[in-house]
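Thread: "does anyone have the structure for this chain?"

Original post by V.I.:
We have the sequence but no experimental structure in hand. Need at least a predicted one for the grant figures.
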Amino acid sequence: MSIGKEPGSLKTLREQIKIARDRMQQLWDEKGHTDTEVINASIELDDLINEYHRKTD
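Reply from O.Q.:
Generated one for you, tokens below.
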């Protein structure tokens, strides 16, 4: 499926993944990889990615 033809919910999910990834990277840079906030952001990102894969499989 090309990005231009994604249903709206998948497009929104891709945007949420990008935001979550950027947030996690910023926290990682500021606090290091073992900080609780970074770990929670990573879990949130994983959940979004898993949801995306469930919807596209």
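V.I.: this helps a lot. The chain has one domain: 8-56.
O.Q.: and Residues 8-56 form one domain.
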